[in-house]
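Dear Dr. H.,

I hope your travels went smoothly. While you were away I took the liberty of generating a structure for the chain from your last submission, since the lab meeting agenda had it listed for discussion. I wanted you to have the full record in hand beforehand rather than looking at slides cold. The sequence, exactly as received, is reproduced here:
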Amino acid sequence: MPPVAVVGAGYAGMAAAVELAGRGVPVTVFEALAVPGGRARRVSAQGRELDNGQHILIGAYGELLRLMRTVGVSDHALLRMPLDLRYFDGFRMRAGLLGVAGALLFAGRIPLSERLGALRFMSAMKRAGFELDEDVSVEDLLERFEQGGAIAHYVWRPLCVSALNTSASEASAQAFLVVLRDALFGGRGASDLLLPRIDLSGLFPEPAARFVEAHGGRILYRTPVKDVDELKKEFASVIVAVGPHQLKALLPAPEFHYQPIYTCYLQYPASMRLHFPMMGLADGLVQWVFDRGALNGENGRLACVISAQGDHQQLGHEELAGRCHDELARWIPGLPRPDWSLVIAEKRATVACTPAAKGVRLAFPGVILAGDYTDPEYPPTLEAAVRSGVRAARAALG
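The corresponding predicted structure, in token form, is as follows:
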């Protein structure tokens, strides 16, 4: 079979490479860095190995989970929990025997009228097939269906910024509805939270690289591609799976608008544990806090995540770490100052998931694009990246 080149060893690129190698196609992956994973990878900082961000998977991520099984990733690499949103201030929403409907109906700290309104909202969206005649912002959609108050504060807006990495005032309502459709109505286990127990490179890209090499492919690290046209001379197809901010160096791509993700690691004494591996903060800068000790044995280490644009971008890293600690100390009595802290700022973590952005379609002669930003339906997630890689591989086969 004719050989295929894949530019970029992130989740999209490695998904494409696995699909091709598994079908006997000679595939060569070109990666500029020494570690695979792209914008979801293991990094070395201050002598420590950390993830460049904290990702949440859900049970509805069917393609990513399928490919993880294909390349031999153990089920123990993910901590699977039924949907359970817990906040430090006592709010909790969890899926029990009645599923998501029960989670909404029995969510504490939300007036009964809002809970019933949320069920009516979801029923209306289900009847409409989770499709809008015209895309609007998530905030506009919530206002249209009277989804303000506590239900928006604790549920809709946090879910929006977590899934789309874009604030509700700007985010695509259609993309948000796709996530709700698959997560809340996608069948058994679709709404489960899947928290990585290993680093993001080990979660899929590195096992995928071993799978590709075992099937006759090549992974060329520290090998940046500067000219796609040169690859076209050697390979029958070229899949470009670099981040959108890197695309312009290879192809005449447009300018994109980006949203950041800041992850602040705080190292406390090893005995410090949260009551639950993932806790929310309803007010302030930090949205979610992850107990890395409960997840992967990094005892006493908390990862505070701040998604989307905000005032935190004006703070220096030391000041931001101090703010994160102060917000935690408000809810954790006697919390000592951290032994060390480290902020990792991915300033171009994702393309802004706005109504205008979801309508953009890119095409270049002789090149197949892959990447989370290319998915016509999904927001920029690891699932969108993997889906795009699978589509690109099948296009190359076709």
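Two observations you may find useful: The first strand starts at residue 4 and ends at 7. Residues 83-191 form one domain.

With kind regards,
E. W.
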